[in-house]
Design goal:
mainly alpha, 4 helices, elongated, DUF4149 domain-containing protein
């Protein structure tokens, strides 16, 4: 049963990352006004972030339970830790900064480190990209 939940959480989290990031968000921005598309995409990214937190914690516990402390010698556990870290950084650090910048939106808006909305979106997108690459590697390694 635990292995079944591992598979379900893996599909939900990693599959969801790819579907939202590669398919849904680009379609939203092609189909809707940028402001509306950004709001919907933001809600989707926050939702998959919460899925990632739950799935990441489950997978972390699963691998520790299944492998014991040997799990720390396996790349799969470190990939889960990396993905979970990316999720937590985006969810609790970057997304709140973006939300704080949006009310006073302008190209000249600057925040911490001189970054405006565009810069924080880029930082978030790079974190998301790293997370999805970790996800692909995790799935590839877990298939062996």
């Amino acid at each position: 049963m635990a292995n079944g939940f591992k598979s379900i959480f893996t599909v939900l989290w990693i599959g969801g990352l790819w579907v939202i990031g590669v398919m849904v968000a680009p379609i939203l921005f092609k189909s809707l006004d940028n402001r509306v598309a950004g709001q919907v995409a933001g809600q989707l990214f926050r939702a998959i972030g919460w899925v990632g937190i739950v799935a990441g914690i489950y997978l972390f516990v699963y691998w520790l339970w299944a492998e014991g402390l040997r799990a720390f010698q396996e790349a799969k556990l470190w990939l889960v830790i990396g993905m979970l870290t990316c999720t937590l950084i985006n969810q609790f650090a970057v997304f709140p900064i973006i939300a704080g910048i949006k009310p006073g939106i302008s190209q000249a808006a600057t925040g911490m480190f001189g970054g405006g909305l565009e810069q924080w979106h880029t930082i978030s997108a790079l974190i998301y990209l790293v997370q999805t690459v970790f996800g692909v590697i995790y799935v590839w390694r877990d298939a062996r």
